[in-house]
Amino acid sequence: MPNKRFVILTGATGTLGKAVCGQLLAEGYHPILVARDIHKLKALQQVHPEQVTVFACDVSDITAIDELFRQPFLQTGALCGVIACAGILTMGATANFAQCDWDAIMQTNLTGTFAVFKQAIPHMQPHGGSLIAIGSRWASGAKTATAYAASKAGLRGMIASMQKEYAGTNIRPVLISPGSIASPMSGSVNNGARPLDILQPEDVANTILHVLSSSQRVIFNEIIMLAYNYDLTDEYAV
Ligand SMILES: NC(=O)c1ccc[n+]([C@@H]2O[C@H](COP(=O)([O-])OP(=O)(O)OC[C@H]3O[C@@H](n4cnc5c(N)ncnc54)[C@H](OP(=O)(O)O)[C@@H]3O)[C@@H](O)[C@H]2O)c1
To answer: Given Cys at both, which of 16, 105, 193, 202 links 147, Cβ 3.0 to 4.6 Å?
Structure first.
């Protein structure tokens, strides 16, 4: 197997993505950082010029994803994981929700994750790897987050189906569904939460790294991780 252990990380410039990137580097992986804003990606690359590769790509654009998987750098190592953190949230009453917002949420959170996973599989099959989708506790339903909840519930069906399809092979699809993470995304909704009560990005990144580096004989069904002192008590409690 080539030396570099590549992991494609979408949403790499976000709150969770940055925490995951740090832990990937600490564990000796070579992250391929994906997001739309090239300036934010380059800022991350400047910190670790040799250890990361960046690729600006909108995961809702199938052509751009095709281009990512045609990059020659992928031939210089083994792709052993994809962590799909790219995601967007728009809240709003269902009756007034803009169709374009629904489409963007579904295309980014659900279709984009599928498209990246689909293209990654042939690259991982020679040696095996993990496809880690980031869901949400809101997949079970959250008031005025209909599109977001639907997109994350879609990931549930997608990963459960892929687990049945790839069982017995070296491809491991896993869904990690966190509760509120201390981030601008959750802050826009849960601004009353005490920061220390909600999940920290590192908490979720730790779990992602555990899944990624665990033995291929282990499968994780869906990992729902919640902030004990917050997610079980707020109005969206599952
Ligand atoms: N924050 C929470 O409380 C929470 C809780 C449960 C689950 N989650 C999930 O965890 C994931 C990360 O959340 P976060 O808080 O880190 O969000 P964030 O800080 O808003 O980061 C989102 C990331 O996704 C990228 N992105 C958005 N649309 C994209 C697209 N079409 N193509 C490629 N990249 C795109 C953004 O970069 P560009 O804008 O440059 O593309 C950014 O890097 C999301 O899937 C979210 O749904 C979050």
So the answer is: 105
